[in-house]
Amino acid sequence: MVVVVQSALYDGYRRRVVVPLVRRTALPAGARLAGTRLNPAFDIGGQTLVLHPLDMVSVANDQLGPVVSSLADQGQAIADALDELLTRSWG
User: Fold this and answer.
1) What is the DSSP letter of 45?
2) Does the structure show a pLDDT above 80 at 20?
3) Are strands 41-44 and 57-60 parallel, antiparallel or unpaired?
């Protein structure tokens, strides 16, 4: 599963920028990724899925499957994760 993070301003393009969602159970044991600002976790269809912004990619629209769920109410957590990834480090 993926989350489309591309602005609706670019809906006319034939590609979408997406961030993968990974099952929490697929993460290495002891991994402290899930639930962090960079990797928020979401419950979808009875599964806990973790956002993986470091694997963000652009894909052709025809490669995307049907919409399974909406994370619109989690938009701030997703924006925070992208902000964490893209904010410049001054150190």
Assistant:
1) T
2) yes
3) unpaired
Q: State the greatest distance between any 2 C-alpha atoms of the chain, in Å, as a whole number.
A: 42
Structure tokens at 45: 């269809």
Counts of helices then strands in the chain (DSSP H, E): 1, 5
Three-state SS at 55: helix
Beta bridge partners of 15: 60
In angstroms, the Cα distances linking 29 to 33, 34, 57 are 11, 11, 26
Residue 27 has pLDDT above 90, yes or no: no
What the block records as the tokens of 65 is 């499957």
pLDDT digits (tens, 9 = 90+) for 44-61: 999 999 999 999 999 999
Mean model confidence pLDDT for the chain: 91
CA distances, 39 to each of 23, 27, 50, 84, 91 (Å) = 12, 12, 6, 10, 22
